[in-house]
């Protein structure tokens, strides 16, 4: 049973990474076919909302759901702007102007960006005396350096033989996209990094929401529904042609359903369950697996070429990621040790206070009886 309990979270996170890898491939093909990133996000958030509402109803609305105040509602609105609308629109725009491998590699800077923003908002302390602080600082610098190298330097192509798999539809879409518009790798990389910043801001705001409103399904359903409205309003102004909203193309319909159900609803459930079992740090460790899976799928299905700059930058980003995670894990263990040492002291102080109160209570009746005897 113990082995099964350790294996299931591992299996869940592998499934999540496989799901995200499929999203990068299908979304890239959908946008190559002419689907606008904003339209894709609208459909994704709409489908995700419909998929999550039943879970919110059965697991939270039928039970003791926390009170939804105006302050919490405003924070959820900010979460929808940063974590859903801003993050996903920017990511898909960046993906349309780069490659799935570059997009996945740059998402690994998230822990480093989150750490920098947490220091700015004073949720983290920046020091260099402890090894944990040194690891987080060094990891952040390495992550940023790898991201810069990956974004602005390509170098020669790595001599990997072409895949024997020939997916005619993917090859046709790639050629069509190349003839219609030339993607800008530098612009795409910068936009993907901007999406990482937006996501990191969401993480900080979401931490505040989780403290006050412990109903993850409800907050996620509200966030997705708000994002649907936000993106729909913007898309109605910028993408007003009916053909741009059409899902008659199979890849567009598959991408919309896949991203909404698999990458929003199912992924959220599996990640939440894994965090409860193993913690947030355990979940973060699996993010480089997505890069490996997408690199293989992009080479095998899309015929993507791997450049020296992309490979070196990806290695630096993953190395920096694990340095930040190691520093955070060590910091948490040090804090736990301090709490364990302080807990017996607190218990002894409580015991001393209780003994003093009891002695005072025993002393009061004696004083009263002596007073009565004196007055009698």
From TrEMBL:
It holds the Pfam family EamA. InterPro entries: EamA_dom, EmrE-like, WAT1-related. The chain crosses the membrane at residues 7-26, 38-60, 72-94, 100-122, 134-153, 185-205, 217-238, 250-273, 280-300, 306-325. Residues 360-370 have a biased composition (Low complexity). Residues 343-357 have a biased composition (Basic and acidic residues). It is a multi-pass membrane protein. It is found in: Membrane. Residues 11-151, 187-325 form the EamA domain. Its main location: membrane. Residues 336-376 are annotated as: Disordered. The keyword Aminoacyl-tRNA synthetase does not apply. Keywords: Membrane, Transmembrane, Transmembrane helix. It comes from the Eukaryota. PANTHER family: WAT1-RELATED PROTEIN. Belongs to the drug/metabolite transporter (DMT) superfamily. Plant drug/metabolite exporter (P-DME) (TC 2.A.7.4) family. This is WAT1-related protein.
């Amino acid at each position: 049973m113990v082995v099964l309990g350790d294996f299931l979270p591992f299996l869940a996170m592998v499934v999540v990474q496989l799901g995200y890898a499929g999203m990068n491939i299908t979304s890239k093909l959908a946008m190559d076919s002419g689907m606008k990133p904003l339209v894709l996000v609208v459909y994704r958030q709409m489908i995700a909302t419909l998929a999550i509402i039943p879970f919110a109803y059965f697991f939270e609305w039928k039970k003791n759901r926390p009170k939804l105040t105006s302050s919490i509602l405003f924070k959820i609105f900010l979460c929808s702007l940063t974590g859903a609308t801003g993050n996903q629109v920017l990511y898909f725009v960046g993906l349309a102007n780069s490659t799935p491998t570059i997009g996945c590699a740059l998402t690994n800077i998230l822990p480093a960006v989150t750490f920098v923003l947490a220091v700015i908002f004073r949720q983290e302390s920046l020091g260099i005396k402890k090894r944990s602080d040194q690891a987080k600082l060094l990891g952040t610098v390495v992550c940023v350096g790898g991201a810069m190298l990956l974004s602005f330097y390509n170098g020669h192509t790595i001599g990997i033989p072409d895949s024997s798999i020939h997916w005619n539809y993917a090859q046709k879409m790639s050629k069509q996209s190349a003839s219609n518009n030339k993607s800008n790798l530098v612009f795409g990389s910068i936009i993907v990094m901007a999406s990482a910043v937006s996501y990191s801001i969401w993480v900080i705001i979401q931490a505040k929401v989780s403290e006050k409103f412990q109903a993850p399904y409800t907050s996620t359903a509200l966030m997705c529904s708000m994002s649907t409205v936000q993106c729909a309003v913007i898309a109605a102004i910028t993408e007003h042609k009916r053909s741009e909203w059409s899902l008659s193309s199979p890849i567009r319909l598959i991408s919309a359903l896949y991203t909404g159900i698999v990458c929003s609803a199912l992924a959220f459930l599996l990640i939440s369950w894994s965090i409860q079992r193993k913690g947030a740090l355990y979940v973060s460790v699996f993010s480089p697996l997505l890069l490996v899976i997408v690199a293989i799928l992009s080479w095998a299905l899309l015929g993507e070429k791997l450049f020296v700059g992309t490979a070196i930058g990806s290695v630096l980003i993953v190395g920096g990621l694990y340095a930040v995670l190691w520093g955070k894990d060590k910091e948490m263990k040090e804090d736990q040790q301090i709490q364990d040492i302080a807990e017996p002291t607190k218990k002894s102080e409580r015991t001393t206070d209780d003994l003093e109160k009891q002695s005072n209570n025993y002393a009061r009746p004696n004083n009263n009886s002596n007073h009565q005897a004196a007055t009698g």
